[in-house]
Each structure stands twice: as structure tokens, then as C-alpha cells.
């Protein structure tokens, strides 16, 4: 009886208030629809705001400050070793997160998006049950599923010891362990390793494959790897964790690598081996939605699922699991379901690894080109020739542009170096707009900035970059 | 013996193409089926394969040229010659103190003046043993004070045919990333390095079988600009291009996801809005980039109608209108955007080759049934109209004749048969014709249809239907019976291929069971797209729908 009184109606219901979900809900509301946004957790903003992009970048900023004060010594500027007050760091990080999450709540209110607290479960293609929180149901014309993803923790790591953490645990910063093992050489592991190393932990990374950041081209990873080798205690490649044992003094980790088997002891272990989409327990079997073998919801280019009333966006709708992909998909879904000619037709989804140096790329990578057997031309501009990089004392960077040899169209851009994450924006625009080398080279870039390296990469294709005297291809 | 290679017929109706890219230069040794050039026609970009093994002696075209079928593209000295010992740069290079280094040094010297020992040498041809010789290629000096580097990428693999100067590996030194060129042409017999290796100057990189791909050809004129690496690269093409040369005129392979179309996001969106297939639009900006103006120009030029009608119908550009005021007073009134949309849609519809078939249905019993139940449906908020009943009748017909529930993809030569029955219903509103869609009509009861249609029609009159409710229809019904008429030829609602028109029923004397009886007869007509539906099927479908009306009341017994 009580439940039936609590039946809400919405033209569009969005499940999950992450960067995908709230972007979709806001746009739908701006377009005059009656929108309900269902969120299970007490804070809005999803993984990204609460336990992903934002807190990790806040901590990485501190890591950068610490490292820069150390590096400044060579330039004649010495600081005393930093005093690290973990409690205050936690508080500051919390404030950043709270401010953003509060902002999302405020935007919901001002746009008239009805916020429904609780876990949404489909009862049919037209009705959701809400468990907990605002208990009841929501009846809808359309639903957009934006339930995101969670850390994948293989059962072997599930040893019920709080010292074995996932990314969420690592971001809580309970303590600064003496020795930290990061399992997995992907971007999350390397970013968190960078944070802990700067705060004083001795960090070891183990990776099963024979390289870190396997999605990126090797020439972009190399400068990062060199630097991390200096900051971390070890990066163990082709190495597998074979056992985990809780001991009083730490976690005994059995490792098996090219040099055989050994057991090392760590104060904490961060497991960052991937993420899993949140599709279980959602009642999707009561709808026509199809889920693939990996648990992702299958969608088409308009973000439609196999059920005509239901759409899906963000991490739950497939790789790459990135916040900006989620929010673009959110906008596409809303526009497409309102009958506008929207499609997720993007050519370039930028990927940024916020380590030091940063690694960023978009569009076609060289790895992909060679896997496809596609002929490309690559112009590389090493930052040793960039005045700006010299003034920063950071010349290990590299900017490269991947072109189509016939039309000179920019197919992909890869950058490693400080600020690569900001620089990639121009590359993304170039790829998306189908710019050609002459467009990049013929655009004036402010001097001295790192963005000039993009311009010069374009000039290199024609064999005449101002600051680099080198011939590409004869 | 030089063979003249001319532009062949690339496909039906294609008379010319644009050279997008020349993939070889004079002097290159090529193999049969190796791509020599990329040619763009108004259909696709095709790679143009070499008809034979041999050596290119002349290149008569350059990127950007517009060539007609029959035009001379290349001259090829074919197969036989390749057995003869040909000039090799190897001897010349050996003469130099640091052979391969000279090539590499050239590369470090800027620009197009890539001369030096490697390129200019045309020493006496070395005897080539019948079985072929192989040579070990070593890492040349990469620069002053550089002793070696890390292999980043190996760009060839065992079995590849490579040409001289083709990059074989990228090596990272502490100064820069350098591409190591091959000093010889041939076939890679064995690779001796892999990515990640640290190698020193002089280290063995690979074994090359020299005879395998014939000797190195004489160099192109020195002024030749640095071009894309030609020749054997073709063997690295994706597996999508197996053995035989790709059929000329065939589609460009990786375009499946539309990635290849050079157009920015706003342009792509406009194209979707206008239903323009961007692969058919010619880009006017650098690199062939398609601009918003290009898309608009394409639509204006009637390219759309050609696309929709498979080239059959062509909407002529509007003719200039005379000054009507010379014959009397006139008033110019803006038309609504709805009217303009209707006009566009009708013009597109007109371009399909269509046929209208007429029939009649005896609806005497049906009308009695309708009158009997109309009040009950009305109570439920619906209107049991002939249109509602027609939805049921049409669905029955469509189930038996799925080709009427389809669309024609002329570009791909496919018929898209829909597995759902979304019926569009023409609604006469004060603003003009609006055609909302009743979804999944096959799954709904007559009562549900009556309620839904009533609601939709009302919303259409109030201009409250959403865009979404206007989309996705698979077949249309237009009922003018309420107004009158003895029959009409409804116009298709593209991309649908069929539409049913109902005219006013009237009492007629019908000869039945040996006597004349007053019967209520309704004329109906079906217009169909003759490209996908043959006349006989059109007639059978129409009869089937008429029968559905006639046997409607009886059929209800089985529901
Ligand atoms: C440590 C870390 C760092 C990261 N850094 C970056 C970065 O720098 N840049 C970047 O682009 N991406 C980054 N990401 C990834 C990014 O966080 C995700 O791609 C992004 O959050 C996905 O957004 P989403 O909207 O799909 O889902 P999520 O952000 O996962 O949000 C889903 C929401 O749905 C809610 N929910 C789930 N199920 C239900 C239900 N049944 N009922 C109601 N609510 C439900 C959840 O509580 C959650 O709030 C990072 C991730 C991690 C873990």
C-alpha cells in the first residue's frame, strides 16, 4: 500500500548520477522533459567525483608539488623536506569532492530534476522498483542506464585484510605505507603509485604483460617508464602474483616472474587490475536489454539497447571507461531519444594518464595502425628542441602526429610530457575536424609554449620544422 | 617491353576518377596486384592494382589529377626483365667507406635533396645467382657519437618484400628516434631484431633475399620529392584484401564505421539530419574535407534525390517563377516549416517509381460491427474508426507480404525488411498533414489501437506529438473516406515502400447468391515502390488487405 503511494512518473528516468547520468539528466531537463535521477549512494557524482578522477587528481597535484620542490634543487632553489599531514590532506581532498558533489545536487534542484535516492531495479521495460532510500517505484517512458563500474578484484585477492585495497581504498589514504605493492600497470595503478611514492612509500609495480600502459604506443610510455623507474622501487614486468598471505608485519606476496619465484613483504597492496560494469542485480532480465559476455550492456551508435525504451551510457555501456566518454554518450542518448539526429560518431576519445610526465593520446595509435596493416606517416617532435620544455627543465617529452600518407589528414596524436593532458585537446580537435598537416602547421601557436610542438610536428612532415633539423622520409 | 597501363572501366557508369595518391614512382619494382595508385570515383576510393610483375618506367599522373577511362597512368616494363641482372646499389655502397651510413646520413640531411652515395650509385650490376643471394643488413651509424639505441618498432616482417630506402625499424637513441632505411630491395628472409632490443652500430638487423623481388631499379630523377614509401608496402595491407586484386569500383574497406569520411562533427550531424550519405559528398577543403557548405550544395544539386531514388528519379532544380503580379494582385505568405518539410518529403517521394493499384472491399458486416462496438470503445476513450480497423487489416497483409514492410537501400543494393509493424497514419490537422506512428500495431488489441490512435490524432492536431512519435513507421494509411471521393493515388511516405488509401464507401447493388443486394462497398488503393515490389505482388497484397476488411467480423471469432 505504502509503496503504491510512492509511485513517481517520469518521461525519462536516469539510473546513476555519475558523469554520464547527470549529464544526461540535465540535458533532458533543459529540453523540457520530466526527469527523475536515481542514485543509490549518498553522494552524487558517481565514481568520477567521489572515488575516481577528482580525488586522484587532487592527490596527484600534491605529488607534483612535492616532486617539483625536490627538482628545483638543481635549478638553485632548495626547500626543506615537506611535512606531510595526512589528516589535513584527507580533509582537503574531501572538501574538493564535497564541493563538486554539492554542485551537482544544486544543479539538479535548479533544473527541476527529481532526485530519487535508492537502488533502482527494473520490474519491466516501463517500471523501476526503488529499494532503500525513497522506497517505491518509478514509471517511465524511457530509461537511461548509467550505473557505471566498480573495481574488479579477482577472488585470489579477496583475503579479508584491509591492507589489501582497491582504488577506492587507496584514495582514502588511511596511512602512508612503508612499502606498497601495486598490482597492475594500468593508468589507475601508476597514478596511485605516483601519489604514494611522492608521499614517501616505496612502491613496487607488478604487471603480467611485458610493458606498462599497454594501450599506449611504446615511444610514449618510454619516458614515463624511465622516470618511474627512478621514483619507484621496482617495476616488475611479466610477473604474476601467485599468493597473498596475511602476516602481522605485512602482506607476504608470492611473485613469479622471468627470474623465477620469490616472496616479498609489503605493508599494503593496491589491486588495480581492471573494472567491471554494474549490470548485475539491476533486473535487466525483466527487460529486453542484452548484456555481452563481459557484462557490458550492448548499445548501438545512438546508445540504444535492444529494448526500445531503454538506453545505456558510460562505463556500463563499454570501453573505454572514461568520464568524458560517459558524458558525451549521455548527451547523445538524450538527443537521440528526442528524435534529434545525434550519434556517438566520435573519431577520437582522448586518453590521459595523469602521471609525471603525463601521457595522452587520441585517435589512431601506431599500434592500431600496424595491427590494421594501415599505412601511416608519423612525425615525431622530441621536446629537447622545445624552448618551453627547456625552461621547465623537462625535455624528456615527445609529441607525435600520425598522418594519412595520401591526404596528410591527422589520424592520431600522441604526447608524453608535462601538461600532455591539456595539450591533447588540440590534437583531439584536429582529428575530429579532419584537419590536415597544413592546418596544424599553418595555425599560429603562442611562443614559448609546449603547444608549439604540435605545430612543429606538422611542419616536420614537410621536412622543415624550425627548431629541429632532421629529415623524415626520403 | 613496356606495357602501357591505362585507367580501366572502374564500374558501371563511372567515366573518370581523381587520383588520390600515387603509390609508386618511376624505377620502382612492383609485383602483380600491388597497388599502384588510389583512385577516387564518385562511388568509392579504389586501389588500382598492377596487372603484372615488373618495373615502373614512367608515371604519367600525380595526386589530384582527374583522369578519364583509357587515360595513360603508368608504363611498366614487365616480368621478363626482372630475371636479368639489374643494377644494384650495393656495389656502389660498398665502395663508400661506411656503406649504409651514407644512406642514413642522407636522411639526416634535410629535405628533398636526398642524394649521396646510396642514391646516385649505379655501379656495375653484380651477378645474381640463380637461387638468389641474401645479404645481412646492419645498423648504420646513426649520428655523431651515437653508439646504438633501442629498437622501438620493427616495421617489416619475415617474408615481406621491401624496397630500398623503405624504413625497416625505428630506433631510439638518446638524441632522437631514427628510422633505419633498408639499403637494398628484396625480400626479408629473416629478422634478427625485435622491439625492445638494445642494438649497437653494426649489429645485424635482418637477412634480405636480394633476388627474390628482383634487383634494385635505377633511381628516379634526383629532383623527385620525398614521397610516401611505395612498392612492397602493399603486402602489408590488411587481410581484407586477399589474393586477387580488389574488384575495381568495390567499396573502400575500412569505412564501415564512417571513420574515413573527412568531416567535422557539426558537418556529420547536419548530414544525418538531412539524410545525406557523406561518402557520396565531395569535400572542397584541404585534404578533401567536407564542409557544411559542401553538404548543403549536395542537397541543393539534387544528389539526395539521386540517392533516395537510386538515381532513377531526379528532382529538377526549381524553375524561376514569373512575376505573377503582372496579371493581377498577389499576396506573398510565408509557409510554415511544417509545410516546407511536407514539400521536401513529397518531392523525395515523387522520385520513386511507384504504381497505384485499386480494389474494393465489401464492408457491410464490418460497418455493422463497427457501429455496434463504437460506443463501448468510446467509453474507453477511443474511436473505433475505419482507420483503426485498417491498421489491423494492413498488419495482416504485411505479415503475408513482408516486402511491403521494408525499405530499399539502393546504395547497397539491399532490401531492409523490418521485423516490427509500426503503422504511420496520416492526420489532417489545421496546420497541415502530420503522420504520427502507432508502434507495434501487431501486438495491440483493436480497443488499444482505437484509444492510442485517438490520442495521437488529438495530439497531432494540438501540435503536441514528439519527433519520436513521427519516426520509425513501416507502412502508411491515409483515409480520406470521411471527406469523400471514389479513389485516389496516395503518394509514398519514403523510405517506406507502401501506402494504403481509403476512399468513401457507398451502398451499391451487388449481385449475390442469385440476386441484387444492397452492399456497402469501400474503394481502396495501394501505392507501392515498384523497385522492390512487383505488380503481381502489389495486386495480391491489395486484395489481401481488402479481404481482411471483408472477413473482419468473422475473423474476430478466432481472436
Ligand atoms: C581511481 C580512478 C581514477 C579515474 N580517473 C579518471 C580520469 O582521470 N579521467 C577519466 O575520464 N576517468 C577516470 N576514471 C574513470 C571514471 O571515473 C569513470 O569512467 C566514470 O566515472 C564513469 O561514469 P559513469 O557515469 O558511467 O558511471 P559512475 O561514475 O560509475 O557512476 C555510476 C553511478 O551509478 C550509481 N548506481 C549504480 N547502480 C545503481 C542502481 N542500481 N541504482 C541507483 N544507482 C546506481 C552508482 O552509485 C554511481 O554513483 C577513474 C576511475 C578511477 C576508479
Layout: helices, strands, pairs:
The complex is a heterodimer of chains A (474) and B (559).
Chain A: H1 2-5, E1 7-15, H2 19-30, E2 35-39, H3 46-51, H4 53-71, H5 86-111, E3 114-117, E4 119-124, E5 127-131, E6 136-145, E7 149-151, E8 164-165, H6 167-172, E9 179-183, H7 187-199, E10 202-206, H8 218-231, E11 234-236, E12 240-247, E13 250-257, E14 260-266, E15 268-271, E16 275-277, E17 310-312, H9 323-337, E18 351-353, E19 358-363, H10 366-372, E20 377-382, H11 387-392, E21 398-403, E22 410-417, H12 420-432, H13 437-441, H14 452-461
Parallel strand pairs in A: 1-2, 1-6, 2-3, 6-17, 8-15, 9-10, 9-15, 10-11
Antiparallel strand pairs in A: 4-5, 5-6, 7-16, 12-13, 13-14, 18-19, 19-22, 20-21, 21-22
Helix pairs in contact in A: 2-5, 2-9, 4-5, 4-7
Chain B: E1 2-6, E2 16-22, E3 29-30, E4 35-40, E5 45-49, E6 54-59, E7 66-68, E8 72-78, H1 89-95, H2 99-108, H3 116-120, E9 134-138, E10 148-154, E11 161-162, E12 167-172, E13 177-181, E14 186-191, E15 198-200, E16 204-209, H4 265-274, H5 292-300, H6 303-308, H7 337-350, E17 354-362, H8 364-379, H9 386-400, E18 406-409, E19 414-417, E20 423-425, E21 427-429, E22 432-434, E23 437-438, H10 446-461, E24 475-479, E25 498-502, E26 506-512, E27 515-529, H11 535-550, H12 552-556
Helix pairs in contact in B: 9-10, 9-11
The structure holds flavin-adenine dinucleotide (FAD).
| Overall spatial form of chain B | elongated
The number of distinct β-strands of chain A equals: 22
CATH class of the largest domain in chain A: Alpha Beta
Name the poorly predicted regions of chain B.
Answer: 80-131, 212-259, 306-317
Q: Please state the average pLDDT score of chain B.
A: 75
The CATH topology of the largest domain in chain B is: Chloramphenicol Acetyltransferase
Q: For this structure, what is the CATH class of the largest domain in chain B?
A: Alpha Beta
The count of domains of chain B is 4
Total strand segments of chain B: 27
Shape of chain A: globular
Biggest interface: chains and residue counts? A-B, 45 and 58 residues
Q: Are there runs of chain A of 5+ residues with pLDDT below 50, and where?
A: none
Amino acid at each position: 500500500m505504502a509503496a503504491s503511494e510512492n509511485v513517481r512518473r517520469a518521461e525519462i528516468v536516469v539510473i546513476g548520477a555519475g558523469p554520464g547520468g547527470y549529464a544526461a539528466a540535465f540535458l533532458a531537463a533543459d529540453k523540457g522533459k520530466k526527469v527523475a535521477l536515481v542514485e543509490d549512494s549518498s553522494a552524487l557524482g558517481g565514481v568520477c567525483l567521489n572515488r575516481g578522477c577528482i580525488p586522484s587528481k587532487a592527490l596527484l597535484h600534491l605529488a607534483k608539488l612535492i616532486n617539483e620542490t625536490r627538482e628545483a634543487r638543481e635549478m638553485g632553489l632548495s626547500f626543506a623536506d615537506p611535512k606531510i599531514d595526512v589528516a589535513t590532506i584527507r580533509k582537503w581532498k574531501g572538501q574538493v569532492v564535497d564541493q563538486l558533489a554539492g554542485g551537482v545536487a544544486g544543479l539538479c534542484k535548479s533544473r527541476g530534476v527529481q532526485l530519487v535516492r535508492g537502488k533502482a531495479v527494473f520490474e519491466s521495460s516501463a517500471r523501476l522498483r526503488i529499494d532503500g532510500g525513497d522506497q517505491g517505484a518509478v514509471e517511465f517512458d524511457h530509461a537511461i542506464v548509467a550505473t557505471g563500474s566498480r573495481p574488479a578484484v579477482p577472488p585470489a585477492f579477496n583475503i579479508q585484510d584491509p591492507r589489501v585495497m582497491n582504488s577506492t581504498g587507496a584514495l582514502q589514504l588511511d596511512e602512508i605505507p612503508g612499502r606498497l605493492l601495486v598490482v597492475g600497470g594500468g593508468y589507475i595503478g601508476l597514478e596511485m603509485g605516483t601519489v604514494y611514492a611522492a608521499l614517501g612509500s616505496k612502491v613496487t609495480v607488478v604487471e603480467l604483460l611485458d610493458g606498462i600502459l599497454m594501450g599506449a604506443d611504446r615511444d610514449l610510455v618510454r619516458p614515463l617508464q624511465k622516470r618511474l623507474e627512478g621514483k619507484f622501487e621496482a617495476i616488475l614486468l611479466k610477473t604474476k602474483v601467485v599468493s597473498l598471505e596475511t602476516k602481522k608485519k605485512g602482506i607476504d606476496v608470492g611473485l613469479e616472474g622471468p627470474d623465477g619465484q620469490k616472496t616479498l613483504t609489503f605493508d599494503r597492496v593496491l589491486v588495480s587490475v581492471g573494472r567491471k560494469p554494474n549490470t548485475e542485480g539491476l533486473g535487466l532480465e525483466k527487460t529486453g536489454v542484452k548484456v555481452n559476455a563481459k557484462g557490458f550492456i550492448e548499445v548501438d551508435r545512438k546508445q540504444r539497447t535492444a529494448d526500445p525504451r531503454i538506453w545505456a551510457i558510460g562505463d556500463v555501456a563499454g570501453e573505454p571507461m572514461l568520464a568524458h566518454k560517459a558524458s558525451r554518450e549521455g548527451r547523445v542518448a538524450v538527443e537521440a531519444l528526442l528524435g534529434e539526429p545525434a550519434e556517438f560518431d566520435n573519431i577520437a576519445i582522448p586518453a590521459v594518464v595523469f602521471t609525471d610526465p603525463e601521457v595522452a593520446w587520441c585517435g589512431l595509435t601506431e599500434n592500431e595502425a600496424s595491427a590494421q596493416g594501415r599505412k601511416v606517416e608519423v612525425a615525431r617532435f622530441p621536446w629537447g628542441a622545445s624552448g618551453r620544455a627547456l625552461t621547465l627543465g623537462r625535455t624528456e617529452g615527445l609529441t607525435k602526429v600520425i598522418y594519412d600518407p595520401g591526404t596528410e589528414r591527422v589520424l592520431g596524436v600522441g604526447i608524453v610530457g608535462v601538461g600532455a593532458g591539456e595539450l591533447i585537446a588540440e590534437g583531439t580537435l584536429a582529428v575530429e575536424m579532419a584537419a590536415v598537416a597544413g592546418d596544424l602547421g599553418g595555425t599560429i601557436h603562442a611562443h614559448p609554449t609546449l603547444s608549439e610542438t604540435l605545430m612543429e610536428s606538422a611542419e616536420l612532415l614537410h621536412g622543415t620544422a624550425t627548431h629541429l633539423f632532421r629529415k623524415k622520409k626520403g | 617491353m613496356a606495357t602501357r597501363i591505362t585507367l580501366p572501366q572502374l564500374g558501371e557508369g563511372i567515366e573518370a576518377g581523381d587520383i588520390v595518391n600515387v603509390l609508386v614512382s618511376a624505377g620502382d619494382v612492383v609485383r602483380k596486384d600491388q597497388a599502384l595508385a588510389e583512385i577516387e570515383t564518385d562511388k568509392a576510393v579504389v586501389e588500382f592494382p598492377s596487372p603484372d610483375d615488373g618495373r615502373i618506367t614512367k608515371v604519367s599522373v600525380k595526386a589530384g589529377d582527374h583522369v578519364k577511362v583509357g587515360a595513360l597512368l603508368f608504363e611498366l616494363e614487365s616480368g621478363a626483365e626482372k630475371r636479368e641482372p639489374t643494377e644494384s646499389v650495393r656495389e656502389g655502397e660498398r665502395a663508400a667507406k661506411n656503406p649504409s651510413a651514407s644512406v642514413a646520413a642522407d636522411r639526416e640531411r634535410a629535405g628533398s635533396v636526398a642524394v649521396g652515395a646510396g642514391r646516385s650509385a649505379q655501379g656495375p650490376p653484380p651477378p645474381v645467382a640463380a637461387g638468389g643471394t641474401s645479404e645481412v643488413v646492419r645498423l648504420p651509424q646513426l649520428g655523431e657519437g651515437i653508439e646504438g639505441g633501442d629498437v622501438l618498432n620493427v616495421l617489416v616482417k619475415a617474408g615481406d618484400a621491401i624496397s630500398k630506402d623503405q624504413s625497416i625499424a625505428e630506433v631510439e637513441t638518446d638524441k632522437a628516434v631514427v628510422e633505419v632505411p633498408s639499403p637494398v630491395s628484396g625480400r626479408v628472409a629473416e629478422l634478427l631484431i625485435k622491439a625492445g632490443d638494445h642494438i649497437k652500430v653494426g649489429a645485424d638487423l635482418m637477412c634480405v633475399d636480394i633476388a627474390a623481388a628482383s634487383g634494385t631499379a635505377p633511381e628516379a630523377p634526383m629532383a623527385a620529392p620525398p614521397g610516401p614509401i611505395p612498392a612492397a608496402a602493399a603486402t602489408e595491407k590488411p587481410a581484407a584484401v586477399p589474393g586477387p586484386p580488389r574488384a575495381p569500383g568495390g567499396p573502400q574497406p575500412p569505412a564501415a564505421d564512417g571513420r574515413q569520411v573527412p568531416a567535422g562533427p557539426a558537418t556529420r550531424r547536419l548530414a544525418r539530419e538531412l539524410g545525406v550519405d557523406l561518402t557520396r559528398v565531395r569535400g572542397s577543403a584541404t585534404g578533401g574535407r567536407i564542409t557544411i557548405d559542401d553538404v548543403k550544395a549536395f542537397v541543393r544539386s539534387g544528389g539526395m534525390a539521386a540517392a533516395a531514388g537510386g538515381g532513377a528519379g531526379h528532382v529538377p532544380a526549381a524553375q524561376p517563377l514569373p512575376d505573377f503580379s503582372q496579371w493581377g494582385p498577389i499576396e506573398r505568405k510565408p509557409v510554415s516549416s511544417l509545410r516546407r518539410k511536407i514539400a521536401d518529403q513529397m518531392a523525395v517521394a515523387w522520385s520513386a517509381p511507384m504504381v497505384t493499384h485499386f480494389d474494393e472491399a465489401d464492408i457491410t458486416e464490418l460497418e455493422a460491427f463497427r457501429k455496434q462496438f463504437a460506443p463501448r470503445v468510446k467509453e474507453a476513450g477511443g474511436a473505433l474508426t475505419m482507420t483503426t480497423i485498417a491498421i489491423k487489416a494492413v498488419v495482416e497483409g504485411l505479415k503475408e507480404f513482408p516486402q511491403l514492410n521494408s525499405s530499399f537501400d539502393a546504395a547497397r543494393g539491399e532490401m531492409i525488411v523490418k521485423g516490427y509493424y509500426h503503422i504511420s497514419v496520416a492526420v489532417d490537422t489545421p496546420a497541415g498533414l502530420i503522420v504520427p506512428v502507432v508502434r507495434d500495431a501487431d501486438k495491440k488489441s483493436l480497443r488499444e489501437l482505437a484509444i492510442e490512435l485517438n490520442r495521437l490524432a488529438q495530439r497531432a492536431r494540438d501540435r503536441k506529438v514528439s519527433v519520436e512519435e513521427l519516426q520509425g513507421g513501416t507502412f502508411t494509411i491515409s483515409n480520406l473516406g470521411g471527406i469523400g471521393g471514389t479513389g485516389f493515388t496516395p503518394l509514398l511516405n519514403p523510405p517506406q515502400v507502401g501506402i494504403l488509401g481509403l476512399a468513401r464507401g457507398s451502398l451499391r447493388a451487388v449481385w449475390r447468391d442469385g440476386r441484387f443486394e444492397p452492399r456497402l462497398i469501400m474503394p481502396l488503393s495501394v501505392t507501392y515502390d515498384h523497385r522492390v515490389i512487383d505488380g503481381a505482388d502489389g495486386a495480391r497484397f491489395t486484395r489481401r488487405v481488402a479481404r481482411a476488411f471483408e472477413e473482419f467480423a468473422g475473423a474476430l471469432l478466432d481472436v
